[in-house]
Request: fold
Amino acid sequence: MDLRQAAYVVAVVDHGTFTAAAASIPVSQPALSQAIAALERELGTELFHRLGREVQLTAAGEAFVEPARRMLRDAQVAQAAVAEVVGVEGGHLDVVALPTMVLEPLVDLVGRFRRDHPDVLVRIAEPEDADGVAQRVRSGAAELGIGDTVPDDDALDTDHLGRQALLAVLPPGTELGPSGRITVGRLATFPLITSPQGTSSRRLLSTALREADDVGDPTVGVVTDHREAIVPLVMAGAGAAVLPEPVARAAEQLGATVAPVSPAIARDVVLLRRRGALSPAARAFRELAVGTDSAT
Reply:
């Protein structure tokens, strides 16, 4: 097995068909098919079920993909390390982040990183939840991830970057008391607009409601996986939401009433990486994020 064959298998998984995978590399579709068939003969098993033009991984294929991604990532790290020694700058950096952590802290970090390393292409992906962030880093699909939990996973290392507050976002004109805050109990009197179960914001809101003393039966008015719709829904009077502070402050500029919640709702901001060597680009990004020039 060689890196070329591993890359072909991963491309088929990522693009869904042999034809699309071949176009993405680019290589001819017959050459890609022949290389994968040769790999399957070498392994003594099929990696894909061929279903017309579409393909699905076999059980052996499922077992193969994550190690193949790690192998490709490690090869990229080695190549980048050599390039750094001979003074070559460039390449790419794959970062994955919770959708609600892209605006902050990721946007600022990427901006600062790109100013220092203008020849590095930064590619950002947004899984739905913290498990998705960890999985992509673990598999090698991304070198670095930003989430809000420390995974119980010996394959991953983490850096704590800080805390992020979540604020109540209320319909325009909502009256607040002299403190300018809103209790969890009062927040629960509004119909709540939330993301689906399992997402970070929904989990934090559910915990706050469960732990508060003065909460009746909260009503969930809207559940949406379209996060960009939450603020417009609040503005339209559909209910109230709890959102990360950068998103909440942007909503305030549109006319929403925004207030800190009492007791406060906040979450950790965590940088994830796979144990082992990082590419020069990932190492530089990590140093920027944690505020140190140490790569340990």
Notes: The chain is about 45% helix and 25% strand. Residues 3-71 form a domain with the Arc Repressor Mutant, subunit A fold (CATH 1.10.10.10). The first strand starts at residue 48 and ends at 51.
